[in-house]
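Objective 1b. Sequence-to-structure analysis of TIGR03643 family protein.
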Amino acid sequence: MNEEQFSTRELDRIIEMAWEDRTPFDSIRFQFDITEKEVITLMRRNMKPSSFKMWRKRVQGRSTKHARLRSDEVGRFKCSRQRSISMNKLSKRRR
C-alpha cells in the first residue's frame, strides 16, 4: 500500500472508520481496497505512538471490528453524528 494513493480526505475517512468501534475492517476494505494489515500500518504512520498503542489494544479481537466474529444481531451501525461531519474532519463539526 502506498499512502500517496489516497487524498487527505480519504486518509481522514480511513482513520475515522478505523477508530469507529462498529465499523468492521471489511467495510474499509470494500470502500478503499486496503487490508486490515494495511489499515494498521496506515494508523501506525499517522498517529502518535501512544494513541496507536491505545487503538490497537482496543480493537484487537473486538468482534465488531471483525465481521467474521460478529453475531447476526449486530446490524449496520450509523453514528448519530455522521450527517453533520463535514469534509471528514470531526473538528469542523457544527452543532
